[in-house]
Amino acid sequence: MQVEVGRERVVRRTSREELIAGLTDTVVEAAERRGKYLLLPLDSGEAAMIHLRMSGQVLVAPPGALRPPHTHVVMHLDPAGADSARDVRHADDVGGSELWFVDPRTFGEVVVFDPQRAHRLLPELARLGVDPIADDFGVDDLRQAFGATRRVLKPLLLDQHVIAGIGNIYADEILHRARLRPDRPADTLDRRRLSVLRDSIVDVLTEAIDAGGSTLGDAQYVDLMGHSGSYQDDHRVYGRGGERCLTCGRGWVRRVVTGGRSTSFCPVCQR
DNA sequence: AAACAAACCTGTGCGC
DNA sequence: TGCGCACAGGTTTGTT
């Protein structure tokens, strides 16, 4: 593939030149994920890492399509080669397309790194906690992380070093599903409640993924094809501050700030 | 150890 | 219509 890089800020760990050199004439062999880190192994032995942070998007588009504002990286994917073993085209074949990294707030980033030496450019990758979707994730994982800390649940769920992949929307939805207050200390949970929390984490994330994610009013989160998700329609507390609780029908959803993040919960059915 | 604030940016929606 | 302000999906860093 050939590569263009606009704003250098999105490759701040290295440089525009290093990103272009690392991607040019390579083949993306897979698309993987650890927590919120998107990983693309390359046939060069290196891998690309993309993090969307708050406002990033990865989009696939026809060659030459009009690029939206804040398109910072463009990868020109090669057509599936006639020399490939069986010139099979799949429904998700994106050969010949462009892959865009778009990010108005430029909190997101793109970098090419050596997976054998990830600690050099991406030290936080090795420090990510258990991934509830990609890894085996049982109540014992939670007991280890939550059993002996006075930290409260909401910031703990958001801590990527403890559990990787939960963001602000899903932390609130998970705690509501588990009927637990966001400000409850983790070490007050017995094994039964830890088990409910474990199931809530897996169920909320799985349902959200199946629904294509949460696309809020500004339509920032969309999938590779630009399609919106529908999980926002299933939010029971996030974005519902001041409304009657959909679950118990008795409490009013409260919106507070915990750890600098907006947090919504029902004080009646979450304990 | 853990809670908190600030920093990094741009866009949007609101009240006036 | 225009302006200023609050706020937004995340993470790191520094301060109490």
Largest beta-sheet characterization: 4 strands, antiparallel
- Bulk shape: globular
Low-confidence stretches: none
The rounded Rg comes to: 21 Å
Overall mean confidence score, pLDDT: 94
What series of H and E elements makes up the topology? EHEEEEEEEHHHHHHEE
Helix content: 10-25%
Distance between the termini: 53 Å
Helix vs. strand class: alpha+beta
Q: How many DSSP helices?
A: 7
Strands across the major sheet, in which order? 1-6-7-5
Q: Work out the strand percent.
A: 15-25%
Q: Which assembly state applies to the chains in this document? A: single chain
By DSSP, the count of extended strands is 10
Provide the descriptors you would attach to this structure in a database record:
4-stranded antiparallel beta sheet; 7 helices; alpha+beta; 271 residues; globular
In words, what does this structure look like?
The structure is a single chain. A hairpin with a 2-residue loop joins strand 9 (254-258) and strand 10. The chain has seven helices and ten strands. The chain is globular, with a radius of gyration of 21 Å. The relative contact order is 0.12. Helix 4 (139-146) packs across helix 7 and helix 6 crosses helix 7 (191-210). The N and C termini lie far apart (53 Å). The longest helix has 20 residues, at 191-210. The protein is of the alpha+beta class. The chain has helices at 16-23, 118-121, 123-126, 139-146, 153-158, 168-177, 191-210, and strands at residues 2-5, 32-34, 37-41, 47-51, 57-61, 71-76, 98-102, 109-113, 254-258, 261-265. A four-stranded antiparallel sheet has the order 1-6-7-5, covered by helices on one side. It binds a DNA duplex (16 and 16 nucleotides) through loops.
